[in-house]
Structure to design on (279 residues):
């Protein structure tokens, strides 16, 4: 017996990690979802709808394009993993190398509307940024800079959420200049607002704590940090403070870092008692 539709779209987003814009696109463009409607036209989802969303997510994680998922929902056949992600990566890299910034902007916005932030970042955006740094051609710097500036503009335009926990995001050490903005975008996928602080000097945090009025602080760790850097700043971190970035594990193994850390904020949300935790 089917369950009664009871979940508004914001609650479904919280339960599944899929933002409302993407849920609407999956319904309108691909017919993957058929939620009920209230008398005022608002979408209401059932337990079966939520199970279906998670099934769709299962296929997307394996690299199936969203346009191919409908035919696979009742199938258990194996699919070549990563094919859709690789194609998206190739399209972005081609547009960047051609300096076709109009096409690149269209591709980025299209991907952002169809795929959850965490998956898009891990499978497409981050590998693409690495590929840009490894180009071996005379105009490599021009290509990387123009693509990075465009990505920053697109992500900034996508940061539109007005409600939810307010999370301060900062960078520490040597890392990609877009690290904070990428984290802000991923936090929006977790229904959080964000405030980017840029490169952080933690010793100034106690002076600004009352003015920041944030529910938590996320620090994206880069290279070049030392034991003394962590020791001298250990008293500065707020109660809700989390570290992200692959180097966090290295610093923790050295015994320098004793606060929660994971590679991404989505992993923090799943594994730790954070204000932006997910169900």
């Amino acid at each position: 017996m089917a369950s009664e539709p009871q979940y508004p779209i914001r609650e479904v987003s919280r339960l599944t990690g899929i933002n409302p814009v993407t849920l609407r696109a999956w319904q309108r463009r691909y017919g993957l979802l058929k939620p009920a409607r209230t008398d005022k036209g608002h979408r209401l989802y059932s337990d079966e709808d939520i199970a279906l969303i998670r099934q769709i997510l299962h296929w997307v994680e394996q690299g199936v394009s969203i346009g191919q998922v409908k035919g696979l929902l009742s199938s258990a056949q194996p699919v070549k993993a990563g094919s859709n992600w690789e194609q998206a990566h190739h399209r972005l890299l081609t547009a960047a190398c051609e300096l076709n910034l109009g096409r690149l902007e269209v591709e980025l916005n299209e991907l952002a509307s169809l795929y959850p932030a965490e998956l898009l970042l891990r499978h497409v955006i981050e590998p693409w940024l690495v590929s840009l740094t490894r180009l071996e051609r005379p105009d490599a710097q021009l290509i990387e800079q123009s693509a990075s500036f465009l990505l920053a503009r697109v992500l900034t335009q996508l940061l539109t959420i007005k409600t939810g926990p307010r999370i301060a995001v900062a960078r520490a050490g040597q890392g990609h200049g877009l690290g904070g903005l990428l984290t802000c975008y991923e936090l929006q996928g977790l229904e959080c607002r964000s405030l980017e602080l840029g490169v952080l000097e933690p010793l100034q945090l106690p002076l600004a704590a009352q003015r920041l009025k944030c529910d938590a602080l996320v620090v994206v760790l880069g290279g070049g940090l030392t034991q003394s850097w962590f020791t001298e700043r250990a008293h500065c971190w707020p109660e809700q403070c989390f570290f992200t970035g692959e180097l966090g594990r290295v610093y923790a193994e050295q015994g320098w870092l004793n606060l929660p850390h994971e590679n991404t904020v989505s992993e923090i949300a799943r594994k730790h008692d954070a204000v932006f935790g997910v169900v």
